[in-house]
Amino acid sequence: MAAQLSEQVVQVEYLDVLTNTGEKTGVSKPRGDVHRDGDYHRAVHVWIFAESTQELLVQLRADCKDSWPGHWDISSAGHISAGDSSLVTARRELQEELGITLPKDAFEKLYIFLEEWVTNEGKFINNEYCDVYLVTTIDPIPLEAFTLEESEVSAVKYVHHEEYRSLLAKKDPQYVPYDVSGQYCQLFEILSKRYKQNAETRATILQKQLNCYAPISLGAEYSGLSSADKEVLTLVVKAARIMDDIFFIQVWYSNPSLRDWLQQHAEEARLNNLKQMYFAVNKSPWSCLDENEAFLTSADSAVKLLPEATKPIVGWKGIEYRTAFPVVKPPGASFYPPDMDKMEFELWKKSLPEDKQKEAIGFFNVIKRQSERILDESLSVATRDTHDLYIVPYSQEYNALLTKASDLLHKAGDLTSCSSLKKLLHSKADAFLSNEYYDSDIAWMELDSKLDITIGPYETYEDALFGYKATFEAFIGVRDDEATSQLKLFGDHLQVLERNLPMDDIYKSEDVSAAPIRVVQLIYNAGDVKGPQTVAFNLPNDERIVNERGSSMVMLKNVSEAKFKLILLPISHELQDVHSAMEEAKADIVGLWALRFLVNKNLLPKTLLKSMYVSFLAGCFRSIRFGLEEAHGKGQALQFNYLFEKGAFLLQPDGAFSVDFDKVEAAVESLSREILTIQGRGDKCAAEALLSKYCVLTQPLKSVLEKLSLIEVPVDILPHFPIADEVFGL
């Protein structure tokens, strides 16, 4: 008897109590008490949708249910128990209620729905935040394939989504009521929009998005490379391609299957071809130039077959489903569980020893769930630790791919005769498997080679949740020795520039040194190089190295020149009387004030003065086209609006812009003084006021952006690398 009572106690389900806005309170209560007291809590709704028939699966709730017994309802639903996660619960509910076992890439999270109602004469109060998931199958699942949990489900059937919406709108007494004029209408709107889109309209939109990028072939002269280094180059390019494979996984776990599917079907129709092309630009279904708005849906995604997802049925091959991705780009990418929030991470991190806390926020690992591993591997729940989250180093998570890349880099290191390149290649190859990148980053800073190679995990922009996790990327180029020596001019005069900055001496640094700069001609890039192309990067990001040795910069000269030719020059045609001056401004502008100072010191030619201001104006327009959500766009908007207000930039009656050279120098110095002083003081209020006033899309900016869109000036370049054709036979 005691054992039976003990078992009953264990089976009591506890739920996390939420605030009325959906945040965890830190309190958990028995399920019955939660519904008695009307506490807010979490649940999952899982809809199974058959694409070919446009039907939703509904279940008949068992007569013993404490709410809505004997009514038709969602395909599968359930509470998220205290300490459990949303996606694991959704998978488990589908398995327990309907006998369907599906992997996580079958579940598309659509939205969160707040459900508030009272039934059973006020004895059952339901205040539920529901994560709504969609599983898209190609055809309906045969009804005999389901294994129903009798205590939960009496029967299942399919109904067309429009008919189901109509039944709910009419408040049919056989169906659990949902307000289809409120939040729950999103489900039906998503399905209708997704499958009623006109192919020609979609093709037109995608073509317009592709036209924002100007295709260009980028290469370099290999005459300075030895025959051995040309072999090295081939091996390194192959290793770089693997960075692409890893990056696709890092962005979203179903991303590689989507990439492969689009490539396989690209030649079937014009729309398919455009989908594949724009996906290749963004390396995901989210558009970089449109604030990560999705240009594909799960209806465009890969189809997978699962023969053993249900009990076997004679003559039926199994479930074919679409690999899913959310419409809203996940802020944590694939670095964290998709249903993990910041609070869960922080609570888990605080529970760890100090060394593990540092590891949790480190660059080179992913965070995963024990419960997901248990579900995937059918392990005993007894193996789960107290906390659901755990750390997996990159060297383990991407082991198969990194082992291939490591082998290629070791082979390349054996071939080269350049000692610093040899050190870099071998140390990076070792780092891929050890997950320790310190030595390889030092070797990168010390690189003195005609062949310039950057490869590995570096930038953390893809981790929009915390900014902790690094993405894999590669930049391979040939060093431009002449341009590298020319840029030493700025480094050699950096202390002089610092002493003469337009700000009070109290804010100036006594000891300033320039980061070493290598100028290269880019011949191949891969990995995290989606959308707009970078013209320079500053590495490493390891604070230990930055504090000990500083950092180094690599400038991609042919990328800068391509952007100048294909974007800045067309923009310059919209400026007044400046085209000839623009031709002279083909060098990167490090800073208007600094350039003017060096000109006045006769260290640069005076002919540069006018062209640099005009180049800056054209560059403002180019950067602002990326949007004011992006940091560089904000900075450019601030500078343009300030200089326009001071009369340094003029809008002519015909809509063209020009530079007032009598006013621009004073205006640039004034803005430089204001920004440098604010930063020197650490005056956050003044900084916010300046940004609030000038980081706006003013009418002059709107007019020029509309004009550039009308004449279809590209926003950025789309590089093609001939070396890829040679190495991969593309």
UniProtKB/TrEMBL annotation:
The keyword Cell cycle does not apply. Residues 39-181 form the Nudix hydrolase domain. It comes from the Eukaryota. This is Nudix hydrolase domain-containing protein. The lineage of its organism: Eukaryota, Viridiplantae, Streptophyta, Embryophyta, Tracheophyta. GO terms for cellular component: cytoplasm. The keyword Cell division does not apply. GO terms for molecular function: dipeptidyl-peptidase activity; metal ion binding. Keywords: Hydrolase, Metal-binding. CDD domains: NUDIX_Hydrolase (cd04692). InterPro entries: NUDIX_hydrolase-like_dom_sf (IPR015797), NUDIX_hydrolase_dom (IPR000086), Peptidase_M49 (IPR039461). Pfam families: NUDIX (PF00293), Peptidase_M49 (PF03571). SUPFAM superfamilies: Nudix.
